[in-house]
Design a protein that fits this description.
single chain; 314 residues; mainly alpha; Rhopdopsin 7-helix transmembrane proteins; globular; disulfide bond; transducer; membrane; Adenosn_rcpt; G protein-coupled adenosine receptor activity
Length: 314
Amino acid sequence: MPNSSLALSSLDGIYIGTECLLALCATLGNALVIWAARLNAAFHNATLYFIASLALADAAMGLLVMPLAIVVSLGMAMPTYGCLFVCCLMLVFSNASILSLLAIAIDRYLRVKLPTRYKTITTERRVWWALGLCWCLSLLGGLVPMFGWNKAGPRSSSFLRCRFISVMRMDYMVYFRFFLCTLVPLLIMCVLYAEVFYIVRTKLSQGVRGAGAFYGHEFRIAKSLALVLLLFAISWLPLCTINCVFYFHPDSQIPPYLIYLAILLSHANSVMNPIVYAYKIKKVRTTYLFILRTYILCKKPKPALAEQTTDPES
């Protein structure tokens, strides 16, 4: 028994250390993405606004969700509804991530489906309304358990060792959180990107004069953003699958290290996106370099680099 306790303690230590590292990387990396989007905000690029929204959600994962996940993993004593609020707050920002991804997919679809009307449809005012809707739905969806769909009971005011499964109902996590709020948007995004790639390939194969550069650029951007979507699915589906196992087979014994690994994988997704942008999206990469050279190393930016950063078509 002492050895088992020691093994669990060691596992907790590895988990907490890894969470701290991921939190730091997610916060700094996504702060850089938001900074890059801010420097390019003058061009009113709708996609950059949605990427900034995704980065804000990922930065919040590092600043709030991962530290709160550590608190929950330690089973600290707190009021029942305090524990429930902490657990709900952890869900809000992952909701914002997937809705921001959905907004990006819709934006890219409109860009290739209606290229001549795109700028009139995606006005700055509509983009801000779309962002507000994403965050309001994320907040409401994450806080649903606070209104009764939980294990706490309507008048519970006692203290408990705060654990996620102590206050959150698995039917909420499976049917509402996974099937409705995660799986449905993922399927919609898959259809949208499939349509985007079909339209782009069709236009490129037709060899329309002047369209090659536009659709070639859109194809590269769509591939990069589809990769972001793929990484999101790979990162979150294992944890969602574990929740399904807990709900449909409550007697199943899942090793703690697998649960921790699935949680860490889902949180690691917040670190991946800034790296994908740096390697795959030229505008973001050049802005990263501009920030590094101008604001961090305090050097005068190269003229070519500054020109690319301030070029709305780059």
